[in-house]
Amino acid sequence: MTRISKEPEIRKNEILDVAEELFAKKGFDNTPVSKIVNKVGVAKGTFYYYFDSKEDIIVAILERRFNYIKKKINTVINDKTYTPIKKLEMLLMELIFPHKEGNNHINNIKIDENEKIHQKRDVLFFEIFEPYIEMVIKEGVERGSFNTNNIEETSKILFLGIDRYIHIFYNTLNDKKILDKRIKAITEVIERVLGIEGNLNLR
């Protein structure tokens, strides 16, 4: 059967789409490259033309997802009608609680069984998105909405702490009571750290 020649970016995205689907169903470790290329209908050489390894493709999938999220976040950041508190709420709901809105775009590709890949996800997630939280906190301090003497470190502690807290208990968050309990605790911590008690709504 003759393979259809396609534009490189189209072919690359086809491989990403199939890999993402298989990782979600079978998990990263249980999906060999052979299954990916067989479903796409290309040779292994084509796969390795675009990606150095299976680990490389998971990073590409995450980057693609994160770039999509960045577009949404940039819209929020640049909207002058939103207060710093509202921006913080919207960023946290998009980044930390995507499942609460039925938007499970970060955690459904089953990479937890592979510690090396999970660490790559954590580093990439932090490097891309923590600066946005820092940006909003800085704006809040400048406008008198937040009160902290160390914007940079406060942002890092909040971001890393909340992300890890949610991730450790991720499998329990389908239970609404448990989810609400954890969100309430996180809300109280953020309010106290930033001096905005009673004004943050993550529910």
TrEMBL record:
Q: In which domain of life is the source organism classified? A: Bacteria
Q: Which UniProt keywords apply?
A: DNA-binding
Pfam families per the UniProt record, alphabetical: TetR_N (PF00440)
Indicate the residues that the entry says bind DNA.
Answer: 32-51
> Would the keyword Acetylation turn up in this protein's UniProt record?
no
* Domain spans labelled HTH tetR-type: 9-69
Q: What is this protein called?
A: TetR family transcriptional regulator
